[in-house]
Amino acid sequence: MWEFIARSLEASTIFTFAALGELINQRSGVLNVGIEGVMLFGATLGFIAAQSTGSYLVGFLVGIAIGGLLGLFHGFFSITLGADQVVVGMGIWILGFGLTTYIGNPYTGPLGMERIPTVLGVSPFFYVGIALVIVTWFVLSKTSLGLRIRSVGENPSVAEVSGIDVAKTRYLCVITGGMLMGFAGAIYSLDYNPVWNYNFLMGWGFIALALVFFSMWNPLILLGGSLLFGTLWQLSLNPQLLLPGVLSRYIWRTVPFAITIGVLMIISTKWFRLRWGATTPEALATPYVKE
Amino acid sequence: MSHSILGKSQEEKQVQKGLLDGIKRGETVLEARGITKRFPGVVANDHIDFEIRAGEIHAILGENGAGKTTLMNILFGLYQPDEGEVIVGGKEVKFRSPLDAIDLGIGMVHQNRKLVSAHTVIENIVLGHPRAGKILNLKRTGGEINELCERYGFKIDLRAKVWQLSEGEKQVVEILKALYRGAKVLILDEPTSALAPPETKKLLASIEAMATDELAIVPFITHKLPIVLAISDRVTVLRRGKVTARSETACVTEKSLAKEMVGREVIFRLERANVETGKPILQVENLSALSDKGFLALEGVSFSVREGEIFGIAGVSGNGQHELAEVLAGLRKAQGGKVILGGKDITHSSCLERWQMGLGYIPSERVEVGSIGDFSLVENIAMNFYFDANFSQRGIVDYGNIRKLTEEIVSEYNVAAPSPDTKAKNLSGGNLQKLILARVLSRRPRLLIANLPTQGLDVGATEFVRNKLMEAKKEKAGILLISEDLDEVLSVSDWVAPIYEGKFTGIIPGEEAKRESVGAMMAGSRPPLFLPPVGGGEGGQET
Amino acid sequence: MRIGSHELRLEKRLTLTGWEAAIISILAIIFGLALFSIIFILDGVNPLFAYQEIFSYAFANPYGLPLTMSRFIFLLLCTSAFIIPFRAGLWNIGMTGQLYVGALGAFAVLFALGGKASRSADLSPGILIPLMLIGAALGGAGLAAIAGFLKGRFNINEIVVTMLLNFIAFWLVSFMIKEGGPFMNPGGRGESFELPFSVRAPLIMGIPFTIFLALGIALVLYFLFAKTQIGYQIRAYGHSPAAARYAGISTFRIPLLVFIMGGAVAGLAGYHYFAAVPGVYKIARNYGFFGDLAFYGIICGLIALGNPLAAIPVALLFGGLSIGGRFVQGKLNMGFGLDYALLGVLMITLVAFQFFYRYKIVWVKTGEDRLDVGVYR
Question: Distance, in angstroms, between A139 CA and closest chain B CA?
Fold first, then answer.
């Protein structure tokens, strides 16, 4: 039972990192739908780096770095060139999906290194994740920088005339967000499930995207959401814990996805919106063009 | 363009910053010399000179397109002039961005509010402030802002979210924002255009208080002539990018100012065409509707409009008139009540059905709702005709016929565009509005709802639109006019209904409507002994 | 950038003609292929040789050409499935799931009519094949309708929903064909039962009849968007849902409609691949590969700028690249996933070239005021 909880927490960690990265993106007004691609790159390149050098540190650094680089790439097209952000995100995803299949193929198989030691039975990254959530929440709601980021995401022209460099702020956010997404991927391939396989992320990047909407752009709710999804996922892998032998394991695999859709439905109803009132950053996915 | 990556050297910054320190009343604080700015196809500012002194209120007057906004944007650092200099406190300066202007003490309050609606008042004021510090100390900031409020007579709840505020309150927030950044010069862009008369009075009082406080000077940019006369010390008039007049306010009259602005004698009142009215084409009974935020925006409104009649609704934006227009047009659900068009209950009819029954709607948002920017003119005209039996058969649209109609419209309404295939987004505001007007009127609607039809248009286009409304009236259409321009409503309407907080504060026959009292009703005061009848029959007493 | 009295400038486009768009798209493809040659070089292969092999196998080889044509049909259907919602401003990235459910739909028909029993079952193709097509279309449409409904009614982001549905559909197929699922092959190899001989799709010169289906759909779609009321409504909604509402267009029905249509076409792609391609005729255990292939439909759709007719040559090209790529991967002993990598590089090149649809590089005399830029007064 404890094993189940521990694994749930570890799964949730990855959701937390990836979704937090996208939350920071979206708070500044940039939409990145290619989270899955960034995670794939982080996971694959991190895996390769770690295995080749025998060092976890190198693996993680590579994963974070590639994530930041992809964030920069996304930022360049979305912010500076003002392209359609959904197209750019899709591009990153398909690029990631395509290239990592090819690049990672020779490395198919287990990582072959000693597992990262756990703290209190759970991977250390879980605690890092919680700390990051708290830091993000604090920065966004209590500091000037946070106010600036939020303003840029709501109404960039207002921010501009208030003396804020919209482009710089957005770049900061996409790079940081990208680093978190790459980090999430690296955690997946180096700690959570250290085996490389073609298309091993199973859509977690898209669940993370759904999570951001679900969290209504609040980091604390996001943490709750990823805990929920981590548990759901673990449950889908071990349905015998709840309802032994009821359905084929394949049907259980669909459960996390189906519940995600259900949750999205609930938070989109008028009733819910009026009660909890949180709204999308107004300028989300709108390129800002200086007059 | 934004800052250079390296930024100014520390020294330069310090020299620049203190330019307006120690300025005394009467000294020139801001000067423009030979400012020229060109855009493709037009010279927006043509060698403009003027200057502003400490403690004075200097109004800048001009119609839309005269170059006011461009000039103000240059003074505020948003644009760079092609020629000429801006001089602050005696020294020539070059603004690379609004940040430079703000640093020097020039603050601007924009016409389309530059505020973040989702944030609180205090968050908006503090945004980007250099002294804000890493961690927001909202208590201390709040105290400082409250001091400013006391000084100039502003009343505002710092914790309220901006979207909850009225237009007047939003403007106060912007003013406070500029003052909190240490503005010594305050540029106000159309400060009274969105205010009801009582709010305007309050604002003017605050402005005078600021001017008395030596350093705060306030150039106006307005085309509300009476206000200019009431409050400013000096006036500068712009026309077509040039300065056409400069003088002390004491020496001018409304007429002379108008002449300078437009270049010819201006007629202030339109001939109200006398048309025999027919039976009621629109009957509204106890209509209610919610706003987008879920509040009751329209509360049990009842009235009717006859054929050949113009029913004018006057009100400051945000009092429910927009929701009323949308409910009537079929774009918003009614919360309660009935809408009857030509005897038929259309309360639950779809938008399309209403079009087919003879309702025509000219939306206030001409770019977002009234047209599709990426569509050609032909495809835009198709918006109201693709379902029409004359232009489509069995599901197939006859674009050839629609194109013919478009060509007729373009020539009759004088829409300036190279071809019917031009994309709508390339049309100017006035031409786009003409296109939309033409499209709606070509259907010969029995009821026409015009929501802010002349907003943002220059005098020429405005005149055109009003004439077309008159023509429609002569053809026995019933017209519901919603406008924020009180003079417009007063000059063309047969019935005037001021609206306040979702209710009509009165329904007055056109000839009896007086500016003062209607203005007061727009802001909520109700005349005693008044019974707003359904059908606008008897008219009432005014205070 | 100046040279003498002229300079190179970046300008926003006011119009984009079909020819200009086509040229940019072609340049994008060429650039992408050139960029991809880096992968060949890194593996010690001469890229020109590699491309030559790819194209000659795909289009000139008696074994390769039919494969290319089958792939082409598949891609064209997927592209059309993407284009329909795309013109409404919506992203259908659920073609994968829709084609899975479409395949299940087709096989369900067979299953219901006794096709599972034996491979030599004598069933009338004249009745069964149309029924299978209908089953496939309904399956795909049904899955997609969920996304369309959620978008129309609740405005839920369709990218997230269609992607989640992909995974749900993926596992659904596994359930049906593996570990004792209803469609499982009695031989128990983790794949579905095989199509009876009698119901195999008729071939014309070695190519399944579905080619007419695919081309026909592309033509119908072109006509739909250019001439019909529905097409106008979809396009209007795609450009501005608010204005479309004002024009009397239902912002609930349009998303639902385009997803149903797109899903139906994707379902047909599922029928095509698993029931019409020679040598397959079942839902294979590596069905996921074909699902992933459907993403090429996104790229084709973007390159074709949503034009159903332009999609035809693009899908043909990509079909060839995909088949040729797989061949070259084997022949030159390169790693698995070469065609995936190609997919990725082409996509990102296309993304980069999006920029040129909105801006152009002009060579003008310095200081000259360009009069065709700006707003007409």
Answer: 8
